[in-house]
Fold this protein.
Amino acid sequence: MSQHGFTDEYYERAWSRIALSTSPKEERRIKETLSLLPQDVTSILDAGCGDGRITNRLIPQYSKVVGLESSREALRNVKTEKLLGSVDSLPFPDKSFDLVLCCEVLEHLPFEVYPRARSELQRVADKYILVSVPYEQDIERMLVKCPYCGCMFVPARHVCSFNLRNTADLFSEFKVQYYNFCAPVKRYGRLLLKAARLTGFLPRHLPMEALCPQCGYSPSLDAGSEKATFGRHDSLPVRLLRPWARRLVPAKRKATWLVILYRRKEKN
């Protein structure tokens, strides 16, 4: 978190905007995640549960479901036992839950929080850890520039990128049991994306809901100014040609998310 609390403010505003709304692609991710839940589980901690979009679906099937989240706004929608807290300081004894769920959380964690969170997740998990993360995201491609202070940041606040290699050993006391790829989409090569930006086919728009982590600037707070609207309007030729370019330019289909089930290693 920044010293000015802009991180907390961002997530409170974000959850007030997106709470209880899921896209078809998001529903596929949730379904894929639920499909990996082992049958010998009775208690689950959803660490970083957000608005309960997964947590609430677990309630009818499991004897104990707890949601932990750092956003008060998001927690308002969770319909089971819930706690305001952080994944790097879980208020539970060791091995308190059969399974710890952590979905779309790890990619948001800053450098000083990330290792503590991994340690805490495996500390309170007795048998399993189930994680979902964006798959092979190009963080550099997602960067935008604050027009007020010049800070480069990702509007969705993602700071880590994940693949099969760096997720294999996320938890020293656990090993990968299963993994699934979810929601494939078109992905273009990095050089092609750079060329698209230079020609104006892919401008770096600053979303209206973005909030600079350094100075707190947001286009939504500066509506009507040149800074708030800069780069948000495309020329007519670009708008006409972009759909055709997307169809004709070669692209690879790659998963949006990676969902991984870890199982505690057996002691020798």
